[in-house]
Structures are given as C-alpha cells and as structure tokens.
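QA checklist item 7 of 12: single-chain prediction sanity check.
[x] sequence parsed
[x] length recorded as 389
[x] structure emitted
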Amino acid sequence: MPFADSKGCGIYCRLEGFPSQPLLVLAHSLGTDHGMWDPQMPALLTRFRILRLDLRGHGASAAPAGDYTIAQLGCDVLAAVDACGYDQFSYCGLSLGGMIGQWLGFHAGGRLQRLVLANTSPRVADPSLFETRRRTVLEHGMRAIEDAVMQRFFSARTLASANPVAESIRAVLLTTAPTGYAGCCAAIRDMDHRPLLADIKAPVLVIGGDDDASTPWIGHGQVLAQGIPGARSVKLAGAHLSNVERPSSFTSALFDFLLPTPQGDTMAAGLAARRSVLGDAHVDRALAGASEFTGEFQEMITRYAWGAVWTRPGLAPHVRRLLVLAMTASLGRWEEFRLHVRTGLASELEMADLKEVLLQVAIYAGVPAANTGFHIAAEEAHQKKKKET
C-alpha cells in the first residue's frame, strides 16, 4: 500500500514495524519529506508501528497546482490512516505537520490517542511572508529560497558542521515540486487555529526549540501550550527542525509522553527483557539454580537491572549490549563479557560490532584488555560456527 487515495490525490505512505504495536503517524515540515524522521526511526520502531507519509505536494505524493488548505492536508492524513486499516492512532507533526495536527485534534479528536505538536504555530506572525514565498518558488524555483529556508531549519553551528542529515534535507528541499510547495504555503498563509485550541481534547505535548526562528516559543508554542487544555510542553536546544538537531532529546520527549507510565511490578518486564537479551536457556539455568541464599539476588537483578534499566527506550538493546561489552572488557569482568559475546552473536551482534568495541577498549582501557577480549570473541565465534555446522 505505497499510496493512499485522498479524493483523487495520491499520498505516498510508508508503513513500518510490527502490526501488534500501536500506530504512530509522523508528519514532516514544509519543504522536507518522510525521511526527515530517519533519526527517530530505530528507537520508535521498538515500541510503535510507524506510518510516515509525504504530505501533498512533497516527496512522492502528488503535487496538484493551486492553493491547498490545512483541511485538505488533514484529510490526506486520515485517508492514509484509513488505507492502513486503523481507527485509533497517535500523531506527531512538526511545523506544517504540527499545523495539520491541530486540525486533526479538533476535527478527528475521537481517533487520536495522543498528539505531539512540534515547532509549530496556530497562526504565523506575518501570513504575507508565505504569500511572498509562494510567488517566489513559482516564478524562480526552489533554489531561490534555499539559503533562507536552511538558515531557519538549522542553527549556524549545524550548518557549519557539514551535518549529513542536514545536507540530505537540503537536497529534498531543492527537489520539492514548486507547485506543491506553493500550495502548502497558501495553506499556512490562510490558517488560523487559535479558535480551535480550547476544544482539542486529546492529550497534547508541545515541543519548541530555543533557537527556532520560524516558530519562536513566545507567540507560537507558548500559545499552543496555554490554549490547549492540559497540554504539556518541553523546549529543546535546537532550531526549527529540532528532531534533526537534537534527535536523542526529541525522541526521549516522545517516549516520555507517548508511552504509558509503568504500573506496579517490574518483575515481568524485567524477565522478558532478560530472556530477550540472554536467551531462554541461560535465564532458565540461572533461575533453576537459585537457592534460598541467591534467590533474592536473582530477583533484584531481574527487577532493577533488567526491569528498570534494560527496558528503558532511550537506547536500543544492541547499543546497551555494546556498552556492556565495553565496560566489562575494561573492568576485566570476563565471565560477563563472554556471556554477552555468546548471546549477542546468537541474536543481533556481528563480529564487526565486536571488533569496533574492542578497538575502542584498546585505546581507552589498554591493549591487554582488548587482547583478551579479541581472544574470547574469536573463541565464541568459533564455537558458534561449530554448532551451526
């Protein structure tokens, strides 16, 4: 289902993740496409099924000539969700995507589980600027606005650092259809969502950027946070595309808001995480071998190490595994190191991962530690190969 039909307009959809997970819809800013969310995807896919779409006039979606409206763009989102077979969903939109999110909060609030409005506004300060931009791209093409847009998307430090994600977004901007970009400019020009805010009932998180020149907190994010009943807010140290400039902080804010607070005992979650990382055989042996003397220790590490730390969404499990390998090698905890090498090679790790970790260990913890680590890793890889053959 790469395209959804929205009253004759083809909307490109990219659906990823496990069908058993709750649906999260991500909507991008003006002048980008669904790839804007690449920095968030590895982490989000551990907890959500993700629907990314190219907004009307952007990416692979159709770009009909003429002025668009926020209502059209909101109906495009609903058409995409319907095409995927979902009724309920959470939504995160940045900039133009957040403007669409406000419309959805008012007009389709019964379908929204949670709503994130990032670096956006209910009404731009000077709508005539978008009329000027609309005319500029139609008459002179996208390159005529390149520098101005990039300077608003990103802080000077990001542009000076030759950030590859920022450069990818520049390429997307320049290949955006002028008719589509102009149509969305008209939608922003004509938008005024201030009367809608008090009637948005879904739980809302408003994200702002300290260096956001396009939608500064005062007059934009602050209006949303104060006007939407019960809205939460967070400000990040980034410019307009805060999810790109501060990807970890942005993702962490999403998880804090979108995921339910753990209730009650962490033992079950810890046991599931422990089995996922170390394998059933190891965990079964450890639990079967627990005695009156060691039983409370087994419960403690399951509840706290696994249930409270390994289940945190801020780092992917394979990243946590690599950190464990680096630390255990550095400290000479070779039994634990060997365990994570063996169980890691049986699941998500490759020898290339181990090589990089041990080269890092050699620099920061010493060549002897890395030498032992390489020897153990080679032994475990050999044993794994023997079992497979």
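[x] summary fact logged: Residues 3-258 form a domain with the Rossmann fold fold (CATH 3.40.50.1820).
[ ] second reviewer sign-off
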